[in-house]
Amino acid sequence: MVLCAIDGDRLMFHPTLIEQGYTGGRQVAQDFTKAIAQELLQQGLTVFERLSFWVTLYINKRAILAALRDEGIASPEHFESFLLGFGQASPRFLIVDAGPGRDSTEVKVKEYIKTYIRFPQTLRLFFGGVDDTYLAMYDGLEKDDLVGKLVLMQPPNEMSPAVRRMSARTLRIDGLFMTEKVNPWAARRPGPLFGLAEGHSSVVTNGGLISPQSESQSSGSTPPPRHSSSEGLRYIDATKNEHEEDDLVPTSTPGYKPAAAKSVDEYAKLDAEDESLARWKASLGIVPGSGTSGQGPKVTIYSLELASTTLPPGKQLVMNLQDTNQIANLKKNPITIKEGVEFNVRISFKVNHSIISGVRYIQLVKRSGIKVDKMEQMLGSYGPHPKGEAYVKNFDPEESPSGMLARSGTYSVRSRVVDDDGEVYAGALLWFPRSSGPTALIFVRGADWEWSFKIGKEW
Q: What is the DSSP string of 33-75?
């Protein structure tokens, strides 16, 4: 038995063949089979009678469709037709849509290889789409003395040190595959890509009162409770239609119910006779009179920063959320991020009054209107800073995606900062006069903000 597994998110067939639709798919299947047969002949494996050849192509279909369309390589109709031709060329040619998710294709391919390469009936397993993410899998196969069955098909032209150290046999087939590495957005989430504005005092923290660390999570289905406004102010979410589906609802923890909200003064007066507790609370800014009157936003979001050692000297990517003009331009002028680099993100914000708990940053990423990723990062729980300064929360390191498909098109992002009570916080504040009521102003909360970015070969 001869098997072939292709990670189609990293290795895709040549555009000229995809453009031919159904005919191109069948032609690829025929040429591919001939190339494998020739390789088996060179390895002396054709002496085995009735060898069966199975091919499984794993793809994140939605992401590939969007990338091919955005790059102008092929229309969705051509690609669908191509896949149909490829799959119908033989009952042993299988196409598996791994579904959305940053690692969905990779996980399935790894499991397939680690399982089937161990079968004694498996003479060779051809693998297309290798890169650094498969190094741990390769090391495991090498340890179990199974690398002799593995053939790395169409390895990258510019191999990384990790790929170069893989000693398995390789095979290149001219004219069937794209020459550049394919890696759509869903296969490697870039994470939040931002910039930090200067001009405000800040202190780095890992979470204020409480600093839970949280991996990225998918959204739950429980909507946040409606928050109440301060007396005399009417809060309006200017970015959202009340009938619009909310894709930025934070994850709910089963069985967890936030405690009743208390003011800073109320927390300061709790167990006031305990001197050690009073000193600890004072270090966190929880002292009588430390908060403001309680009107207006509890939290002001200042900025977000993308920090990377690969940035050119003196270069900063700035997203100043206090600048209303910049917020308006964020969607029109995408940030350019260099492919394949490590970066980390930090958010800067100030607690104006009250104690806030379970604060999270959430973002939803789309390309060509198709949802490709959602990320949720726990920031922690906070009170007003003792010195009135801003907090800065560092996110875990991320790696930007790479490859032609990752560089194609523009990614649109919708971001939100929200707490356990469903209170949504923003940066710049807009005030408009009102005709009647106890106050003369309406506070319009910017709530979510939208921006965009591209992946490029350079910053």
A: HHHHHHHHHHTT-TTSTT--EEEEEEE-HHHHHHHHHHTTS--
Burial of 159: CB neighbours in 10 Å, binned 0-12, 13-18, 19+: middle
pLDDT beyond 60 at 456: yes
Q: How many structural domains are present in the chain?
A: 2
Do 154 and 257 share a domain, yes or no? no
The identity of residue 357, as a single letter, is: S
Alpha-carbon torsion (3, 176, 95, 24), positive or negative: negative
Classify residue 141: in a domain, yes or no.
yes
CB atoms under 10 Å from CB of 299, counted, come to 22
- Structure confidence by residue, pLDDT tens digits, 386-414: 788 898 988 878 888 887 777 878 888 88
Asked whether residue 178 falls in the same domain as residue 211, the answer is no
Q: What is the CATH number of the domain that holds 124?
A: 3.40.50
| pTM of the predicted model as reported, rounded to 2 decimal places | 0.47
Separation CA 427–CA 389 (nearest Å):
15
Question: Whole domain around residue 10: which residue ranges?
Answer: 2-187
Per-residue pLDDT, 82:
93
- Assigned domain for 197 exists: no
Count helices and strands in the chain by DSSP H and E runs? 11, 21
In Å, how far are 68, 243, 342 from 178, measured between CA atoms?
Answer: 12, 44, 25
* Domain of residue 210, CATH code: 2.70.50.30
The answer to whether the CB of 79 falls within 8 A of the CB of 184 is no
Q: What is the predicted pLDDT for the residue at 200?
A: 40
274-323 pLDDT, tens digit per residue, is 777 667 666 656 666 655 556 667 888 888 888 898 999 989 887 888 88
Q: For residues 246 and 137, state if they share a domain.
A: no
pLDDT in tens, 190-214: 444 433 333 444 444 333 332 333 3
